[in-house]
Specification:
Blueprint lengths: L6 H24 L6 H8 L3 H7 L3 H5 L3 H13 L7 H16 L5 H9 L1 H24 L7 H20 L3 H18 L1
Helix pairs in contact: 1-2, 5-6, 5-8, 6-9, 6-10, 7-8, 8-9, 9-10
Length: 189
């Protein structure tokens, strides 16, 4: 995540993190459905309007790194060196995201997501949005000869690789296995 440089940006980032931390703590203690937005705002010592200026919905509180993940994926495409192969760059980024999401202490969060229909639906819509953003970056890359359909397909595969690997017994091995298939598919397009 990019560190905000100005005082105001640092304060906003700190407030956002304080809200996200309070929400997660309450959700894990009481259960996602038992906690309301007012509860989170009170725990974080902010107004409800402040909470909504940082998060668009209750579900977004659980996925507070969503924008950062999406930006990391698109930047992996747009910031890579000229003529640097695409698939290894995406594999490195997905490996890093999977490492982050499978770190110690994350299992209760994913159990909570699995148990909540609202969170599962939000996660699915988030993944589709990430895939579209990644596909847009791929299509816009002048060094990639593949067409829009191939780019959209590979983007979906990459996003699904993240989800599948996160659930695997050995997530890093799963990333490598999935990316061998992605690379083969990319090369035949």
């Amino acid at each position: 995540m990019t560190v905000p440089t100005g005082r105001r940006e640092r304060k906003k980032a700190a407030t956002r993190q304080k809200i996200a931390d309070a929400a997660l703590r309450l959700f894990l203690e009481r259960g996602y459905d038992a906690v309301g937005i007012r509860d989170v705002a009170a725990e974080a010592d902010v107004a409800v309007t402040t909470l909504f200026s940082h998060f668009a919905s209750k579900e977004a509180l659980v996925f507070e790194q969503d924008d950062n993940f999406e930006q990391r994926l698109t930047r992996a495409v747009t910031d890579r060196a000229p003529h640097e192969p695409l698939i290894p760059v995406l594999r490195r980024e997905i490996r890093a995201l999977v490492r982050h999401c499978t770190a110690d202490g994350t299992a209760p969060i994913y159990r909570m997501i699995d148990e909540s229909r609202a969170l599962r639906e939000y996660e699915e819509s988030m993944r589709l949005r990430h895939a579209e953003s990644l596909a847009t970056a791929l299509v816009a890359d002048p060094d990639l000869p593949q067409g829009a359909t191939a780019c959209r397909t590979i983007a979906r595969f990459v996003i699904d690789a993240y989800a599948l690997a996160r659930e695997a017994a050995d997530p890093q091995v799963a990333v490598d296995e999935i990316f061998r298939m992605i690379e083969a598919a990319w090369e035949v397009t």
